[in-house]
Write a structure and sequence with these properties.
Length: 143
């Protein structure tokens, strides 16, 4: 398999990196957690194997929230809405009209928001270990 192609799009003055692997008919957008660096994951034999298998049937987009991994640093943690907008921007830049969205932990909220705002863009939603915003608050329900 060819190495991943890394592309960059501008988001509020900073470059947001994403990778594309595979050419299958079923696009999948993988929104990675902060500690899952896209380039370093390819050095892990288990991740590499899984990504190669997925690339056989799906066009996969791999990315993290802006400010992490291959993207430019940012001055603030992006809001839930900014992260959801970034997901849509990656889909637009990759010319993907509809995709299955896959996230884990802190990336689940933005993906759920994309699915709520743009149901026509989402063919499936896979959320692994999603967590609630109340875990970070003072105990009050999130707004």
């Amino acid at each position: 398999m060819d190495p991943p192609v890394t592309r960059y799009i501008q988001r509020d003055g900073a470059a947001l990196a994403y990778q594309i692997v595979g050419e299958g008919p079923h696009p999948i957008a993988w929104f990675f957690e902060d500690m899952m660096h896209p380039d370093l994951m390819w050095t892990d034999p288990h991740f590499h194997y899984n990504f190669e298998r997925c690339a056989r049937f799906a066009r996969s987009l791999f990315f993290q929230r802006r400010g992490f991994g291959l993207s430019d640093p940012v001055e603030h943690v992006p809001t839930l809405e900014e992260q959801a907008d970034d997901v849509v921007a990656v889909l637009d830049d990759a010319e993907v009209d509809r995709a299955t969205l896959v996230g884990a932990a802190s990336t689940c909220g933005p993906l759920a928001l994309v699915a709520a705002r743009h149901p026509d863009r989402v063919s499936g939603l896979v959320l692994a270990e999603p967590w609630s915003d109340t875990l970070l608050s003072d105990g009050d329900p999130p707004p």
